[in-house]
Amino acid sequence: MTSSTPAAAYTTHKAFDVQNFTLPWKIAAVFFGTLFLAVSSYIEVPMVPVPITMQTYAVMLVGALYGWRLGGVTIVAWLMEGALGLPVLAGGASGPQHFMGATGGYLFAFPVAGMAVGWLTARGWNGQRVWFSFLAMLIGNAICLTLGATWLAMLIGAERAIMAGVVPFIIGAVLKSGLGAMTLKLLTRDARHTAE
Question: % helix / strand / coil in the chain, to the nearest 5?
């Protein structure tokens, strides 16, 4: 029984091993990943100075499914689309000003967070170990909140940055981490059954 568990985990991980895709498939994965990230940006609860969106859920999931390299490339490509004027950021926002304002730290944190989740997922913190997957995504959310609040503190001060840029997002970070871990479990379970 113990010998079948690692085999199942290995099969599951290999089913989403996009690092071994051919270049055209990697380009397609980046395209669909940026599309997923853009759609998630439109699901939001408007708040000041930083809105609550499903972006972090999508960022963590892209990192977990794509791995740290391709996940990072995908997230950076999505941010570049936003910086160049495509309406792919929170609520359809776009333009370089969002990278200099209150949301800048959170945006710059996204690739770091997604890559961290991808790195942890590759080391077994994946859908087959749902609590580890939850912790990986929680760590990714913590990276976003920490880097985002650090940036925000330079604009409005540390205390206000924590109260406006961290505290309102803690419950959402926990819930989105749980949702991401369960989504990953469902996706990897389906992939394992397909592989078998």
Answer: 80, 0, 20
